[in-house]
Amino acid sequence: MTGNGKTWPDPVEWTGKIYSAGWRESEGGTLQVIEPATGHALAEVGVASSVDVARAGARAAQAAGDWAAAAPSDRIDVLLRASSALREHSATFRDWIVRESAGVPAKGDYEITAALAQLTHAVGLASRPPGEVLTPQTPGGTSLAWRVPLGVVGVINPWNAPLLFAVRALAPALALGNTVLLKPDPLTPVSGGVLVARLFEDAGLPDGVLQVLPGGAETGQAVAADPHVAMVAFTGSAEVGRVVAGVAGEGLKRVALELGGKNSLVVLEDADVDAAALAGAVSTFGYQGQACVAAGRHLVHADLVEAYTDALVGHARTLRVGDPRVEGVSIGPIISERLATRIERIVDESVAGGARVLTGGRRDGLFYPPTVLDRVDRAMPAFTEEIFGPVAPVIPFHREAEAIEIANDTAYGLTAAVHSGSVQRATAVAEQLRTGMVHINDVSAKDAANAPFGGMGLSGNGSRIGGSASLEEFTQWRWLTAPGPV
Ligand code: NAD
């Protein structure tokens, strides 16, 4: 609600529409947003067809010159106003995140806090694209190099942190003078698209600088292929990331890929077992395990494995499963039948191969309970595949080197956590893990606006988002020379 008692944002403005220099009808029809916990229809948004995307690309390219030339203070003002609007409407954002993405309110609050941090950090980037004064090749001449915007950036996002993933890409991209085409996931187009567009509309962002184009694979392909798009920032699965990279590669565009993970939480024999099990529970069961940074393997020293597993099962059994809007519920539904079926297959095949279910393991529709598996071997899908559900495979080890070898036995390389009574020892182990991120005596699932987020191997293409990494991702060098002073 706004101060004058009206609903913010007014559904009449955006229902069935896309945001492309104002709210407008699309040529791609509409899509319905369904609440996973109840099956109720929540909203209807426009779907951007390839024609809509082409028009949006042309508008974004047209708006790019003025936006790149705007004074940093103008860009900063927009980011600060967007930040104030996000604070003002945080209850609306929380409610939509809870209903669309099926996370508990604390997950909504986390996204809002993290998105605010991204906006604040982007304010600092707006006046920062650095340059270098180089030694000229002609005496008395000038040689300068500095970072300039790329132009139009296409942002293609998944459903699991719709607000945060939108803001973490578009805030630095806009701050650094780019224009943005944002394609939210069709499961979360309101919290990952409509509301974001309304924030920046209220913040006074000029028309065409940010456009929101909901839709599925076809819309995403059109964004990646659009000739006006200079860079694609994709967050999602490795499978689709490969396709998007191929399409963008055809156009010789920059591509930043933030993909999946098969992340290990390693517990050495001198670890505080209760603290490690709590970190393990949070890392695997939080938001039903539907996070790229969730722990997908619990590697526990054989001396501790019984105590650790008991504690993990204890946590799993205290977590109430249900509609995330109901007080006391910690575990909402899985986002879609497709994903719930996939989790079920991974667990069932692993059990058929000899794994044992210590708790959970059977779903009720979309509701999959926190599950702990032991007797997991390396041939089982619970070991090899990203599960993206609340399932914790526990694997014992005897030697530190063995733990490192098991953790590195994956093509992914996103994040990890190492638990030990000695931070130095844990750090030495952490340094041998092939991941873009690693955390000592903590959860595997962390992010910070000032840190380079991203992974190695199948978890990305070496791109990072956040902190100074965003400065590199969303700008490029220009070199200028002159025979005299400029
Ligand atoms: P997905 O790859 O299926 O979809 C992601 C986005 O791509 C969606 O917007 C979708 O509509 C779009 N898309 C689908 N097919 C496309 C195509 N052919 N061309 C262009 N766009 C297309 O992702 P998902 O399975 O819904 O999300 C979960 C995956 O995302 C997991 O693997 C998870 O680990 C990963 N993820 C990674 C990060 C990260 O920051 N590294 C964050 C969140 C999720």
TrEMBL record:
The keyword Oxidoreductase applies. SUPFAM superfamilies: ALDH-like (SSF53720). It comes from the Bacteria. Keywords: NAD, Oxidoreductase. Its EC number is 1.2.1.28. Residues 23-479 form the Aldehyde dehydrogenase domain. Pfam families: Aldedh. One of its GO terms (molecular function) is benzaldehyde dehydrogenase (NAD+) activity. Belongs to the aldehyde dehydrogenase family. This is Benzaldehyde dehydrogenase [NAD(+)]. It comes from Streptomyces chartreusis NRRL 3882.
